[in-house]
């Protein structure tokens, strides 16, 4: 479903940041995917929003077609978003994010409120991982690359079905995952924390979408809406991966919110 999008690349200190621009003359909406994903995840949403919105979806650092980065810090991710907006000449956008991308979105808005007219937070908690656990431990057992696609799939074991349709063929031969397992483990570690100050720092209109089987506890979702003015909530009967597990319901909630802006 990305055949209607244009893929382009932004160079940041010789590191490629790849992004999909679904085009159109509508208002700009920048969509940030979560861990182990890529910008193409938002192709169905771009189609659902139609010409009224120009959806731009980067492959965040170290994922999809974007190069690996030297670090996966909070400030590194936010610098990428700023560089992309400046590169595209977008003074102000609606910023949507899922999971990692949602936290990146509201933290970016906290630091650059003049650049964000509205926020859409999909399964991005205000506080997470405070017990020190990292759910991505299983990634450390996965191979990053192999001589053949079949060998890579075999080495991935039970995880193979989740990534089999997204494997990349290297230019110099062999196959690889669309992310490095160690990078994503580090990134998950660094996105953990108490981010309440960032979530409550802005007052632009916001939509918080939570899955009933997602990662945000119901009581935290209620507090996120109560503590941040201008926030409305939507709860979907879905797991954490809302953009792909409940695409129609997700698009409907986003459309309704955007129509009211």
Task: Describe the structure concisely.
This protein has 261 residues and is an alpha/beta fold. The protein has helices spanning 43-49, 74-88, 100-111, 149-156, 160-163, 181-191, 196-199, 218-227, 242-245, 247-259; strands at residues 6-12, 15-21, 27-32, 53-58, 93-98, 116-122, 127-128, 145-146, 168-169, 175-176, 193-194, 206-213, 231-239.
Helix content: 25-40%
Question: What fraction of residues sit in β-strands?
Answer: 25-35%
Question: Numbering strands along the chain, what is their spatial order in the largest sheet?
Answer: 1-2-4-3-5-6-12-13
Radius of gyration over all CA atoms, rounded? 18 Å
Secondary-structure element order, N to C? EEEHEHEHEEEHHEEHEHEHEHH
Largest sheet: 8 strands, mixed
The first-level CATH class is given as: Alpha Beta
How does the helix and strand content classify structurally? alpha/beta
What is the second-level CATH architecture?
3-Layer(aba) Sandwich
Stretches where pLDDT is under 50 for at least 5 consecutive residues are none
Large-scale geometry = globular
Distance between the termini: 27 Å
What is the name of the CATH topology? Rossmann fold
Task: Count the DSSP helices.
Answer: 10
Beta-strand segment tally: 13
Instruction: Summarize model confidence as the mean pLDDT.
Output: 96
Tally of domains: 1
């Amino acid at each position: 479903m990305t055949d209607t999008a244009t893929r382009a690349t932004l160079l940041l200190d010789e590191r490629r940041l790849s992004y999909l621009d679904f085009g159109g003359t509508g208002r700009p909406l920048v969509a940030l995917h979560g861990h182990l994903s890529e910008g193409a995840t938002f192709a169905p949403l771009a189609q659902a929003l139609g010409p009224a919105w120009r959806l731009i979806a980067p492959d965040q650092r170290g994922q999809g077609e974007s190069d690996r980065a030297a670090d996966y810090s909070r400030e590194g991710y936010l610098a990428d978003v700023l560089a992309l907006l400046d590169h595209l000449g977008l003074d102000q956008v609606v910023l949507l994010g899922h999971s990692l991308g949602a936290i990146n979105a509201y933290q970016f808005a906290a630091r650059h409120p003049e650049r964000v007219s509205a926020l859409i937070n999909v399964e991005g908690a205000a506080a997470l991982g405070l017990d020190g656990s990292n759910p991505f431990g299983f990634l450390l057992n996965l191979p990053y690359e192999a001589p053949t696609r079949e060998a890579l799939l075999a080495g991935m074991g039970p995880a193979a079905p989740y990534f089999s349709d997204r494997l990349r063929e290297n230019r110099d031969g062999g196959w690889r995952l669309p992310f490095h397992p160690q990078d994503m483990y580090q990134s998950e570690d660094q996105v953990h924390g108490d981010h309440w100050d960032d979530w409550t720092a802005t007052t632009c209109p916001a939509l918080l979408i939570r899955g009933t089987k997602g990662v945000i506890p119901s009581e935290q979702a209620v507090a996120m809406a109560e503590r941040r003015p201008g926030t409305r909530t939507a709860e979907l009967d879905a797991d954490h991966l809302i953009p792909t597990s409940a695409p129609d319901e997700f698009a409907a909630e986003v459309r309704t919110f955007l129509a009211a802006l």
